[in-house]
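hiii, so i know i said id send this last week but things got crazy w the move. better late than never?? heres the sequnce for the chain we talked about at the cafe, plus the structure i predicted for it. fair warning i was half asleep when i ran it
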Amino acid sequence: MDKLYEILKFEAEEINYLFEKASIEWEWTPQEISDRREIVVKKFLEKFFPFPFKVAKWNIIDSYWLKSQSIDCIILNPSHPYTISNEEKYSIIFADWVDVAIEVKPDMSSETEIIRSLQQIQSVKKLNKIRDWILLKSNHTTDYLNNAKKIPTFIFGTKASKDIRLLIEKIVNYYVNNSVPKNEQFDYIIINNRFIIYNSRKDSYFNLNNNLEWIFFVEYWKMTLLYFLLLLNKIPKSEPTMSSSVLEHYIDNNDVTFKQFEDLNFKLLGI
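okay and structure toks below
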């Protein structure tokens, strides 16, 4: 475990370093800088989700022909068809074989970037799979089964306001002002080397405190990337698996203290 912790601390530092390096390469356009940062995250994911998993960038389309906006890093289940074009890019990505959708937004202190990321995530959450990973459906509620047809979503960044409240307040204000339903909201926000924000919802991928539908956060600091990896491994895959991820047994999450801003959560509940 200690070795894994140390490795991921170096990985976290390298990600931040490469994000900064991309921003000072004077010949690159903003789009090229963005592309370089996405590649950094993609390469990290490929280390821990190696072949036959695949990490792609593109729109996601569901069985009802609804299409998401372009998403930076999409972890594809090994069962996803090999729909690669001659340019080595995916020509189509099917929602039913998407395990996780991750939007890379380096600077989450920018209100423009915050809103843009929430809109991109919402476009993914509008999609519905025609099947899910649940075997014994009679053991679950209708809402739980419906959520299982939604794609788990993350926003990954390296910068945010020093005061976490400012970020959460902007998120809450956007959701309230635009009446965004719970099932179209983000699941997790990762700010590397700082914290993770959890969107706790009944019958969703993360639920805390007896179905309390609030936003929580944990300041993990240099351990943030480690817990990001844990979340990725705990989320159910597109197809049923016979066992849990081995990494879950190496990462302890028992002593974590979840924090929240009560007034903002009450405001969010008013949607």
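btw The helical segments are 2-23, 30-48, 111-125, 142-147, 164-177, 224-234, 262-269. thought thatd interest u
miss u guys!!
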